[in-house]
Amino acid sequence: MKNNNAWEEKAKLLRKWCLVSTTAAGSGHPTSCLSAADLTAVLFEKYFTYDISNPLNRYNDRFVLSKGHAAPLLYALFGMCNAYDLNELKTLRQFNSLFEGHPVPKFKYAEAATGSLGQGLSVGAGLALLAKREMLPYTTYVLCGDGELAEGQVWEAANFAAYHRLNNLIAILDINRLAQSGETMFGHDMEAYEQRFRAFNFRVITIDGHNYGEIDQALQQAHDDAGQQPVAIIARTLKGKGISFLENKDGWHGKPLKEDDLKKALNELGAIDDNIRFDLRKPAQTAIANATQTNTAVQLEFDRARTYATREVFGQALAQIAQHSPDVYVLDADVKNSTFTEDVLKETPERFIECFIAEQNMVSVGAGLSRIGKVPVLATFGAFFMRAADQIRMARISEANIKYVGSHVGVSIGEDGPSQMALEDIAFFGAMPGTVILQPCDAIATANLVPRMIEHTGFVYMRTLRPKTKLLYTTGDTFSIGGSKIIRQSDNDLLTVAATGITVFEALQAADMLKQENINIRVVDCYSINPVDKQTLAACLNDTRLKCIITVEDHFAHGGLGDFVAAAIGAESDLVVKMAVTKISQSGKQEELLQDAGIDAAAIAARVRQIVRSNDPVSTPA
């Protein structure tokens, strides 16, 4: 009974600050917080091991708030751990406040940005898997709402957690029945939730989420079990619990109390000791999780008589780096023999994670790994990253240090057809601030740029090619983020063709064709698409007679290399001509598809002739 009273008093204080902060903000989701106050009060008081002075301590337990709209509860929990004065919660949702509407990295105790529902269990699975792989003793707790259990990603995560035997992962399911616009899919049908989690091989414990004894027993049981199953504590709760006019009432989602109603609610809670706090136990060990250990040296030799697919060289380079970089983890989506991450599996299987065909879960697992200082490299077909667009967006908000590698880009993949062709990927990744986008065109450039990708802190997207290409560069050539290479030039170039990836070779072929007609063009390999090499492009404009740049890319016209180039040199010239894919493609041979898309050598040469003719008809050959 003594413990029950202490838990009840702390849950009341949590409820108070969830109500006070949302009323002060004039917005928020207080009722979603109230349903989970009892669950979290017991967790933080008795089970949660955490060094509040060091959120990135590798030995801390992890708490992921998957139902991110309950952010005031998260803020109140850590406030009651003496992380800050609880009165600061009155700045909730204000500009420049630490306490945003949904958790983001500005709040250093948040394991990931949440708010787009259904992603927290995947983040937690990433954290739990890391603990198992590196034999760290922490437990990962994920608080999920019942509404988000309709999201498919939750079940991707559940499948993943069971497959990898994450018995250090405890999902706490706040089944409060009411969603935003009505009842959740199963309401309070607890058996329906039990069946689903048992089907995914979770050990299931069903409780009354407001009975402190049952909460305590469930958490103790979850810790005592020595099996290899993740745990799901399915808690029947009431939305708005503790306030009579809110409790289990529809229509209150996302609605803060007015001042008069707040006074009534606080009166119902009764006398509260504002000075009580959680007495967190610190982990027995301390280690900082923010130092990346990498040795990115790559030693590969290439035969100039051969051709190489950049996707294959990527796998070889990454395998070498992984052998000497214990913080590099490689995540696959059942395409390791196409992306060639299988090379990593052969050399360092302990840092290869098979996620199977579940790209959304893979991205959020990567966000979890990044939180503890790891460098996750995620590889699949470029087109399939689009299935995880929201997860990638949220990982960017989480400031995750993730490297994405998309193979099978553009129409040049050939016979597989349009469903496999990544043609919008540059536009998507380029829309997110600070994202580096790279596309090497040959083996030597790839072997150089994979280390640069790993060394960079932040989002990087690399496109790799399915078709094999000849060696364009030589050993000793250097490549940098933001760089480019002028690979064809003369003293009397008329204009510049800026290409990337497979179109570099088409541009060179076009230059050869045009030279026979006494038309000289400059060719630039824009292997760094973002940031693009503005300085080199501007110099090319100044050095060529027609002050024109043609961009050629195996990507849709909007949001690709052409737009990055135009943005970079827009102040210098408005003569940027974009050549890109403008229609849905089809199955066929590489040459046929490049021609059909209008981005092959013949099309480039034709466009150059057209521009030269329109600008200087006298000197244009007949």
Summarize the structure.
The protein is α/β, with parallel strands linked by helices and 622 residues long.
CATH-derived architecture of the largest domain: 3-Layer(aba) Sandwich
CATH class descriptor name of the largest domain: Alpha Beta
Number of discrete domains:
3
Within CATH, the superfamily of the largest domain carries the name Thiamin diphosphate (ThDP)-binding fold, Pyr/PP domains
Helix share bin: 25-40%
Q: Gap between N and C termini, in Å?
A: 98 Å
If strands are numbered along the chain, what order do they take across the biggest sheet? 8-7-9-10-12-11-17
Mean pLDDT equals 96
What is the CATH T-level topology of the largest domain?
Rossmann fold
Strand percentage lies at 5-15%
Number of helices: 21
What coarse outline follows from CA principal-axis ratios?
elongated
Q: Note poorly predicted spans.
A: 617-622
Helix/strand/pairing class, anyone? alpha/beta
Tell me the Rg in angstroms: 28 Å
Largest sheet: 7 strands, mixed
Number of strands: 19
Keywords:
622 residues, alpha/beta, Rossmann fold, 3 domains, five-stranded parallel beta sheet, 21 helices, 37% helix, disordered C terminus
Descriptive overview:
With 622 residues, the chain is α/β, with parallel strands linked by helices. It folds into three domains: 2-269, Rossmann fold; 307-470, Thiamin diphosphate (ThDP)-binding fold, Pyr/PP domains (Rossmann fold, 3-Layer(aba) Sandwich), CATH 3.40.50; 485-615, Rossmann fold, CATH 3.40.50. It contains 21 helices and 19 strands. The strands form four sheets. The chain has a seven-stranded mixed sheet with strand order 8-7-9-10-12-11-17, with helices on both faces. It has a five-stranded parallel sheet with strand order 1-2-3-5-4, sandwiched between helices. A five-stranded mixed sheet has the order 14-16-15-18-19, sandwiched between helices.
